[in-house]
Every structure is written in structure tokens, then in C-alpha cells.
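Appendix B. Chain record.
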Amino acid sequence: MMRVRVKRRKRQRCFGNSAIRQGLLQYLLLEEVLAMSEKQIFDRKSIQIKPVDLSDTICAFANADGGTIAIGISDKHQRIEGVDYHEEQMNEILRAPIDFCSPTVPVTIEMVECVNYEGKQDHVLLMHIEASPLLHANQADEAFLRVGDKSKKLDFNDRMTLLYAKGVRYYEDEPVADASIEDLDLDFVREYCQVIGYTKSPEEYVRENKKLVTGKEGKERVSVAAILLFGNSTFILKTIVMSASFAAKTTASAPVPSENASIEQNDASIPSENASIGQNDASIHGKDALIELLHRRKDEGIVSRKDAANAVLVIENTDIMQVITTKEIMKTLSCRTTKARMVLRMMEAQGLIKTIRGKGRYILNVSE
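C-alpha cells predicted for this chain:
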């Protein structure tokens, strides 16, 4: 390890000279920085690092437990480079949390005095990053998480898990496809309101409390929590039938034995009012088919992992026949306009969406 040169000063009683006391603390802090090994909450980076590469580490710390990045110390050899004589590069690095992280990562900057490898007075930059309640990604919309001394790139499933863990998204708040307020047992909601002393109507309760029913572009979206709490038996039955139908279509199974023929007869006696289930089921299968198609094209190298993950997120968060625009993509992916337009073009090229009347307006390309 390189020796850190400490200026020798005459000892002052009780460190009476505050300037000397501050200087000694700074040198000791630098020695501690050099002695620390890279770990969950600490990393070193050369002043020559590209801001776009630094953003991966910044996002990883923010997505995990926070940490400190010491900039101006060679990562491999711990050579003290300093930052004072690299003004242009320094300015780029200071903008990295803003220009290369989405959303912006708040950081605190600390300058520690040092003597660089050329024997000149210099500074090492300490970038302190707090753990964030949000999920942060780089310019390419890639998310990282600090694990030990490495910044791990998250795949789609890991990213969704982290979103739920941070409370950025809750599964209970996700909309249920094809559900409406008519699928709630409003009589039961009315009884519940009486118990808790809620004086307004059941419809007002589900619309005004806990995001049970929300409105978007004039269309009501019923959450998973609303269905779990107040869903009526008809909708639950429909869900069971749809799940069974999906399993039957996606599982390669042998022909049904003849002794089960009576089941088919009983099935034929299902009341006609449930005939609409098949149509809803087709729509769900259409979305699943789009996602399956994406995975195949990703495996074949036609679509990148990042593009596939973005498209899956859009499909899962889009209702059947819901109009998709650049603005909707920006909300779903928490990205900028340029990125949203690229995602739309990719999805259109892959046949995942189709245009409707009006420029820049699409819907999912699923079977009705």
C-alpha cells in the first residue's frame, strides 16, 4: 500500500489549533479509505472512469443499502490519483447521478485532502449515497443492486421483486384484467361500511379508499385487493374457469379417457350467461401469447433481453383495448420520451401492438 505522507507539525496542547486538528482528521480519514476493502457499502473508482459506467455503481448502492464511492484512487493498485487536476472529468462525474441515473440519485459530496502519486497537494472525492425508497436505473434502463463487492445487474424478475420489496409497487394494487366495479359484492361493501362507520355509499368507498378502484382515461381499474376483499362469487368462478382453461391449453396432455365423457356433458349444461367467459379468456391468452412470443424471440436473439423485459412490463400493465401512447409507456417504465418511443417502435415492429385511429396511438395485438 502506498504510504500517505503526513505533514509533521509541532504538537499543540489539546490540539488547540483547530486547523491542525482538522488537517489531522482528514489525513486519518484518507488512511482509513485506503485501508478499507471494497464491500457492500464501499467502492473505489479511478478519476478516469466514464460517468456512464459510474452510474451503474451509484444505482446499485441506491437500490441496496447505500454506500460511499471514493473517486480518485486507482481501483486495482490503490494509486492516489486525486481529482483536482482533472477538472473536466470531475464535472462529468458530478453530473453522473443526475444525467445518467433515472430517477436522479441524491448524493452528498465530501472532499478529502491528499497528496497524489506525483507528490502534489490534491483531493479525493467521496460520494455518499443513501439507500433509496425508489428503484434507480442507468440510461439504458438497466437496474443494478449492490451485492457484496459487486454491482449485480437485475433481470426482469429480480427487478419486479425489488419494486415490490421497496414498496414502489404492490401486487395488491395491480389492476385485474377485465374486472369492473360490477364484479364487486357491493352489498357486502355496504355492510362493511356500516361496521366501520363509513356514511357514504359503497361505490364511493371503493373509489375513494386504498386504491381499490381507480380511474384511468375514463376507465375504471379494479385492484387485486378489491377482488380479494369484496369480489363476488360470479367473478371468482369466472377466474377459476379461465385458469383451468389456460392450464388445459398450455399443458400437452393425453386425450381424456372415455369414462370422463360425462364431464363433457355436464360442462355443456353450463348456463348461457357464462358464455362471455370464453371471450375474456381469449383476451388473456392473447396477452400470454404475446409474452411467450417475446421470450422465444429473446432466446433466438431477435429481441434483446432489455427490450423483452420492457415490452413484458408494458403488456402486463396494459388492459385489453386500452390505448397505448408514448405517455403511457413513460409512466409504466418510468423513462423519458426518447426511450418510450423506441419501445413503441420495437413493439410495433415485432407485431405486439397495432395502430388505431390517431397518430401515435396503439392497442395490444391480441385476439378478441
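Further analysis of this model is presented in Appendix C.
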